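I'll show a typical protein example:
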Amino acid sequence: MWRFHPTNALTVNGGNLISENGFGNSWDGPITLNTDLTIQGFFTLIITGKISGTGGLIKANGGPLILTGANDYTGDTTVDGGTLEVNGTSIKDTNKLIINGGKVRAIGTEIVASLFFGAAPQASGTWGATGSGATNIDDIHFTGTAGVISVVPGGGSGYSAWQTANSTTQTIGQDLDNDGVANGIEYFINGPVANSSFTALPGVTNTGGGLSVTFTHAAGYTGAYGTDFRVETSATLAPGSWTAATPSGSPNVPDTVYTSGNDAIYTFPTGPVKKFARLVVTGP
């Protein structure tokens, strides 16, 4: 058992992590798994730090475990009890998910290479509880309606993985759920098309450096600005009038795009200038 400070870095060479009532219910620092780590306890534990390494993660006992980081540990994820909540970047796409007991709750689409109930492998496709929109409905192993587990042999990558997760062959420019938002944008933000009828897009804000709009991509999206996605602007909205906005190395530069982390921030020109802005996603 470890009693821990939530922002410390943790290297695991064996042992258990236990959540206790009123103590140690979150971990914000990075975790490196050199061996498997077992999470125990009957109270909620939220891990926001990135989990990496060659070990696996074992969820035991009755308390909820919530993973919110963009994790890339390569070992198996095993649920023996309680509830494991994942958010689309919690489990590496090429990893195995094993459910021996307890349940999994997905927020968005979580891709795994294989799914096992005990020692029994399960079929490819989407899995979830009633109301989740999954192809395979299973209320014994899954809970919640906000997302699905998508089993993609080999883990998949890029837009092809998003297609598989949403059971479609549509192109990046089509609109699978007919909400006026192209598939490429849904893919960019890791939108669970199968579970939503409308995707909200960002509005114009004023953060002190002028009017701007921020397009935030999912942590699992690895495309590069100018190659796989770009912001385009137009003064008229007319076909053929859209041009790619120039990238800038500094924030708040008028009529340019500044990329920072997962954000692409377009700052509108100053003065009496009319400009429209849109996001275009082409890959990877």
Remarks:
- Residues 10-162 form one domain.
